[in-house]
Design brief:
The protein is of the alpha/beta class. It has 13 helices and 20 strands. The protein has a 10-stranded mixed beta sheet, sandwiched between helices. Helix 3 packs across helix 4. The structure holds guanosine-5'-diphosphate (GDP), 6-O-phosphoryl inosine monophosphate and magnesium ion (MG). 6-O-phosphoryl inosine monophosphate binds next to helix 4.
Length: 429
């Protein structure tokens, strides 16, 4: 049993990562987010009480664990504080949150530029969450971003913000014909956030490595998913970070050889929010049914999620890139009433099976999914807690998923609640 476990999305996000992070957090000493920002929306359900998290790690509902926001995350201080306040108001202890001094800060101009850039793309829009994520990562790469260590240093923040707002105002006015931003107003609002966050800031790289060396167990919580990765996803319809196992090393300061186990979370069917290719999408009554019965509406934006049959090709691809050891399958219960279920097990182009995920979206658009059809199990799985007790047809579906993706199934979810979980392998973490 390893000391570190990574939980990642294996499709286009919203696979149910938060649910499994909350489950495994009970066995961890530290839970750390490593990439992305408040574009993530992880919903946890404990005793039928729902919690929606965007920046705070999904381990927060397990008492006495460090919940780390790593250096690879882009942090909107206003969103983080709102989330901390709302958790505190519900009696959740947030005192063990730790924020990396190297994480980059999302500021108001990032959100404004996110929206303006989307508008200017017209029908080529990405369908971003509008949270300023990509503009913040752009500033990081452009070396004009503001890091948490500078954000909480009054003098540094004032000077850096002044310079950056001058730069952004040129773009806002000259490119987008937008009103300039007021430096003093933003400074005074954000200084207040910095004052509140200062006690939580530390060198999380040292914290994580020291704890690991002391024999503690760390759970890394992925946000987004492989197909939204800026290198491996359906570029340009992707996010701006690396939601793959490699991103954990970069986003937390952990050496690759210290990653022991990786779980790729996969929903029993596939969904996507925002624009971009989605070969198994069902723009018909099946898609409507999945959306309705699976409650497929975005946590962050409330947008209806696009829905379709499980695309096992992208899960297999995610497995290669991140070295996924186990699949964590969620939402099996949504198929409880289906007569027939399909799974895409390969892609064809011009009648020939292809062995890769096409890089070119022009080629990706020509992909024909090869489906296998499974008989439904037509019974309630939501109360099942042992793999053996699952209906035969559900096992057949899961076994085929494991076969096509070349990955064993480690854990299964049959409902949103923490206890609606079937542990297939007890020795994962
Ligand atoms: P994440 O972003 O990957 O953490 O996933 P989201 O939280 O955005 O979306 C997953 C949704 O499915 C949440 O509302 C969960 O409460 C819910 N969920 C997770 N697992 C299950 C399950 O096995 N069955 C059902 N019915 N809902 C689930
Ligand atoms: P979780 O962690 C689903 C999508 C957006 C858009 C694209 C780029 O909950 O799985 P961005 O705002 O990141 O620039 O948007 O990525 N996207 C997500 N889709 N789940 C997420 O996170 C997502 N985070 C970003 O919808 O298509
Ligand atoms: Mg989500």
């Amino acid at each position: 049993m390893g000391k570190t476990l990574v939980i990642l999305g294996s499709s286009w996000g919203d696979e149910g990562k938060g649910k499994f992070v909350d489950y495994y957090a009970q066995k961890a000493d530290i839970i750390s987010r490593v990439a992305g920002g408040s574009n993530a929306g992880h919903t946890l359900s404990i005793d039928n009480v729902e919690y929606k998290l965007r920046l705070v790690p999904s381990g927060i509902l397990c008492k006495d664990k460090f919940c780390v926001i790593g250096n690879g995350v882009v942090v909107d201080p206003k969103v983080l504080l709102e989330e901390m306040d709302s958790l505190s108001a519900r009696g959740v202890d947030v005192s063990k949150i730790r924020l990396s001094n190297r994480a980059h800060v999302v500021l108001p101009y990032h959100q404004i530029l996110d929206k303006l850039s989307e508008e200017s793309r017209g029908d080529k829009k990405i369908g971003t969450t509008g949270r300023g994520i990509s503009p913040c990562y752009i500033d990081k790469a452009d070396r004009i971003g503001i890091r948490v260590c500078d954000f909480i240093d009054k003098e540094e923040f004032a000077a850096r913000l002044k310079f950056t707002i001058e730069q952004k105002n040129i773009i806002l006015q000259k490119v987008y014909n937008h009103a300039p931003l007021n430096y003093e107003e933003i400074l005074s609002e954000y200084e207040g956030y910095a004052d509140r966050l200062r006690p939580y800031v530390c060198d999380t790289i040292t914290l994580l490595n020291e704890e690991l060396n002391a024999g503690k167990k760390i759970l890394f919580e992925g946000a987004q998913a492989t197909m939204l990765d800026i290198d491996y996803g359906t570029y340009p319809y992707v996010t701006a970070s690396h939601p793959v196992a490699g991103g954990v090393c970069v986003g937390a300061g952990i050496a690759p050889k210290k990653i022991d186990t990786v779980i790729g979370v996969v929903k029993a069917y596939t969904t996507r929010v925002g624009e971009g290719p989605f070969p198994t999408e069902q723009l018909n009554e099946i898609g409507e049914r999945l959306r309705k019965e699976g409650h497929e509406f975005g946590t962050v934006t409330g947008r209806p999620r696009r829905t379709g049959w499980l695309d096992a090709c992208v899960v297999k691809y995610a497995g290669q890139i991140s070295g996924i050891d186990y699949l964590g399958v969620t939402k099996m219960d949504i198929f409880d009433t289906f007569d027939e279920i399909k799974m895409c097990v390969a892609y064809k182009i011009d009648g020939k099976i292809i062995n890769e995920i096409p890089a070119s979206l022009k080629v990706f658009a020509q992909v024909e999914p090869v489906y296998e059809t499974f008989e439904g199990w037509k019974c309630d799985t939501s109360k099942i807690r042992n793999y053996e007790d699952l209906p035969v047809n559900a096992k057949k579906y899961l076994e085929r998923m494991a076969e096509v993706t070349g990955t064993k199934i480690g854990i299964i979810s049959v409902g949103p609640n923490r206890d609606q979980t079937i542990v297939v392998d007890e020795n994962i973490f």
